[in-house]
Amino acid sequence: MSFFRSLNDSSDDWAMDYLNNGILPSNRNFMGIGALNNSDVLTAVSIVAGDVARFPILQIKDSDDSIADENTVTYLLNKKSNDYSSAYSWKFAMMVNAILTGNSYTRIIRDPTTYGKNAGKAIELEFFPPSQVAINYRDRPGVKREYYYTFYPEDDRSPFDLEPEDVIHFKFFSSDGIVGRSPLLSLVDEMNLQKSGVDTLGRFFKSGLKGSILKVNGAKLSKEARRKIRADFEYAQEGDSNGPIITDSTMEYQPLEVDTSVLNLINSNNWSASQIAKAMRIPAYKLAINSPNQSVNQLAAGYISNDLPFYFKPIVSEFEMKLLTDKERHNYHFDFDTRKQTARPVTELVALVENSILTPNEVRAELGKKADDKTSEMNEYQSTLNTVSLNLKDEYQKSNKVQPKGGDVNGAKNNTNQSGSQK
Q1: Which end of the chain is more exposed for a tag (fewer CB within 10 A), N or C?
Q2: Looking at residue 308, what is its pLDDT?
Q3: pLDDT tier for residue 99 given thresholds of 50, 70 and 90
């Protein structure tokens, strides 16, 4: 199917195509906000969105990997995105919508005092829910097909169009590079299974008298008679649901026995939760599933180093394309600052300094601290007096004669004195 539809498209099936392919959220497919009714999905989305939102974003110089001073762009990305939203809240909302619906959108408001293509620096980031944004296309003679975004604000503003360079668009899985696909589309069976298990437990505990057999002795009952006896029996037992059940000699009450192993299986089945964790790229232990043979520290380090980059890289690539000029893209790049969580142990870093592998300032950078430029030695490789190069050792030995030991000197003096006295 085509991902591009004209706003005046009158075909009957295009909306259903969008629903079936996950472009438009559908509660029947456990898409959109409705998916948060599942506690495992809520937990997984909260973990990913919270982790992406909490890490600062740095602008780094390509030539020497130095961190640029805070500017308007990094201020928007790390502190205050607009007049009513902090940077954390903005990134969290963008992540939640990108996961639940496959796409999330932000309008870039640029400085109107500068001119030229993409010349205006971003001064504000305005978030729009996916329901208020549509992707359309235009065909121009002699020009390749172009796409653009149409925004439908819920306030008093009229709909407006924006070019791709003025829209930050989060999408973590896309088959065409334009429209994203939610990972929840791959979890429909798992979430259905989990919901069925919960519903089964709910029906069991809410069944009450329906989970029993009432025998009427010595009678063959018609359908109408059975229905009347059941209604009369339930009416007679109304009131205290925990009270005794009263029957006469013509009736025999027998509660149904349920295989508890089936209930235990439903209650303890964590397969669907592990599938949700896998699709969302988070460690299973975060959804209360034991992970054998690995400690929590190892799992957390692997999560930050191997799983979160699946989200980090598309985000920083989008920022570089939309928030930097072409000249800046040749000299700078964005990256998430995870050093405080992924830095090597201090003892290991000290050993690297003592063996002249890292300078003290490089160690400070790895620990997420600013460089100390006041002390020149902080940018030089360090060494101890016990560790010198072989060349320096040879030069030292050549320039300094080997002195005899103290005992040898005293012995030589005694021999001289004795030979003098004998003469």
Answers
A1: C
A2: 92
A3: very high
Sequence-distant (6+) residues with CB within 8 A of 12 are none
Q: Whose structure tokens read 């980031």?
A: 125
Among residues 349, 381, 383, 351, the alpha carbon closest in space to that of 365 is found at 349
Please write the tens of the pLDDT for every residue from 163-213: 999 999 999 999 888 999 998 888 887 777 777 777 776 766 665 545 567
Rounded to the nearest 10°, the torsion over CA 401, 407, 412, 415 is -170
Interatomic CA distance for residues 199 and 367, integer angstroms: 49
Distances (CA, A) of 155 to 37, 285, 364: 28, 43, 48
**C-alpha to C-alpha distance for 53 and 4, rounded to whole angstroms:** 31
Lowest mean per-residue pLDDT among 251-255, 265-269, 341-345, 363-367: 265-269
Rounded CA-CA distance 133/386 in Å is 67
| Half-sphere exposure for 205 (CA within 13 Å, toward CB) | 7
| Beta carbons of 366 and 341 less than 8 angstroms apart | no
Q: How far apart are CA 136 and CA 145, in angstroms?
A: 11
Q: Which of the given ranges, 161-170, 257-266, 272-281, 365-374, has the highest pLDDT on average?
A: 161-170
Which ranges in 303-405 belong to alpha helices (H)?
Answer: 309-323, 326-329, 339-342, 346-354, 360-366, 390-399
How far is residue 81 from each of residues 59, 76, 108, 319, measured CA to CA in Å? 16, 4, 10, 13
